[in-house]
Design goal:
- By secondary structure, this protein is of the alpha+beta class.
- It is built from 4 helices and 8 strands, in the order ββααβββαβαββ.
- The chain has an 8-stranded mixed β-sheet, sandwiched between helices.
- α1 (35-45) crosses α2 (52-61).
- The radius of gyration is 16 Å and the shape is globular.
- Mean pLDDT is 87; it is low at 9-22.
């Protein structure tokens, strides 16, 4: 496996023993062996779920683009699943899914995962931009995508999700 060197730290104060526990998390490229843990994180965190064959499809077709966040015990605590859009006029990537377990949120892991995937899209495939979809109601993700990562809403897709909720189609141009 390949580590990007990105590490996030979270201080947790243990009130019973009065010690600080430091959790270190590293970002690395996802492997086939990670797919069950990625699927479990998806099931735990998100209402949009996929069959295992969809994860295999991403991993085998675009192995450079999906990344995991792994804690110091080797547990997958977050992931980004990404692909290149086929049959596109311009080469561009798409973020299929990103999730971080609740106890590891607010460490910047989702941003680090997405940034690494976007870097690989540009380097490996010459991507000109990246796209994604996000629920209209997902304010935390919208803030991350717009304010931290520089995505812009390109359109609203009516009833995009299975439950009928609209999605913002978002795009970030690479310069």
């Amino acid at each position: 496996t390949q580590s990007t060197g990105a590490v996030a730290r979270k201080e947790v104060y243990n009130t019973t023993s009065h010690i600080n526990i430091r959790r270190m998390v590293s970002i690395r490229r996802a492997t086939i062996e990670d797919l069950p843990a990625i699927q479990q994180a998806n099931l735990t965190c998100l209402p949009e779920n996929y069959q295992m064959k969809y994860y295999f499809y991403h991993s085998l077709s675009w192995p450079q683009l999906s990344y995991v966040a792994e804690d110091y015990k080797g547990r997958i605590v977050g992931y980004v699943l990404a692909k290149m859009e086929e049959d596109a006029k311009q080469p561009h990537g798409h973020i299929t899914s990103v999730a971080v377990l609740r106890s590891y949120r607010r460490l910047g892991l989702a941003a680090k995962l997405m940034e690494q995937s976007q870097k690989s899209m540009k380097e490996a495939f010459g991507a000109k931009y990246v796209s994604l979809h996000v629920r209209e109601s997902n304010r935390a993700a919208l803030t991350l995508y717009k304010d931290r990562l520089g995505f812009k809403v390109s359109e609203i897709e009516s009833k995009y999700y299975a439950d009928g909720e609209n999605a913002y189609a978002m795009r970030k141009d690479f310069t």
